[in-house]
Amino acid sequence: MVSWDHIFASLNQYFSSLRQELHSDQHGARLTSTRGITEQELAGLLAVCRLVGRVADRSAEARCALAESQTWLPTIVLFGLAGCGVPVELKAEILSALGSLALSPELAASLWQTLELSQVRGDSPFLVIPYPYICFNKPSPRCFRSVNAALS
Q1: Nearest-5° Cα angle at 10, 5 to 11
Q2: What is the C-alpha to C-alpha distance for residues 108 and 139, in angstroms, rounded to an integer?
Q3: From CA 78, how far away is CA 118, in angstroms rounded?
Q4: How many CB atoms lie within 10 A of CB 90?
Q5: Average pLDDT, consecutive stretches of 10 residues, N- to C-terminus, the chain (152 residues)
Q6: What are 119-134's pLDDT values in tens digits?
Q7: CA distances from 43 to 5, 40, 83, 134 (A)
Q8: Alpha-carbon gap, residue 75 to 111, rounded angstroms
Q9: Which one-letter DSSP state was computed for residue 116?
């Protein structure tokens, strides 16, 4: 049985590993354990992001519980993954899941603040989001959906 604890622990492990690889690459040295995401892992990560998005789409209560979890920190982990060197289709699913979490107005502003702090907006060397698709002045679910549409 797979639990939310397992799902977010796994996402956090990928984020930590990819962040280490990014950090080592920026300093000119590669870690000996550097590896990419396999096709099988990618399929699992895509499914997890879709699951998070679907649950958040269908239940405001679940959406708030997920987004505000201090144990799982899903917005931090998802934004972190989006800022790493992951395939474009995974970035799109991550942003779609974040867009689903932002459907509640009380969560949209918090997600927007996390977006600004995450460096996904323009400081990441792996940024693939065209600037016209980002709504810099209006944090709303539509902005996240527009970014996802640009990536799809």
Answers
A1: 100
A2: 6
A3: 10
A4: 21
A5: 93 90 58 65 96 96 94 92 90 93 90 76 46 41 50 46
A6: 665 544 444 443 333 4
A7: 19, 5, 19, 27
A8: 7
A9: H
> 47 is written with which tokens?
């499914």
Looking up tokens 């931090």 gives 76
Contact 66, 107 (CB under 8 A): no
Q: Coil, strand or helix: which one is 119?
A: coil
The residues spanned by each domain of the chain are: 4-26+37-151
CA dihedral 36, 55, 118, 38 (to 10 degrees): 0
- How remote is the C-alpha of 151 from its chain's centroid? 13
For the chain, how far is it from start to end, CA to CA, in angstroms?
31
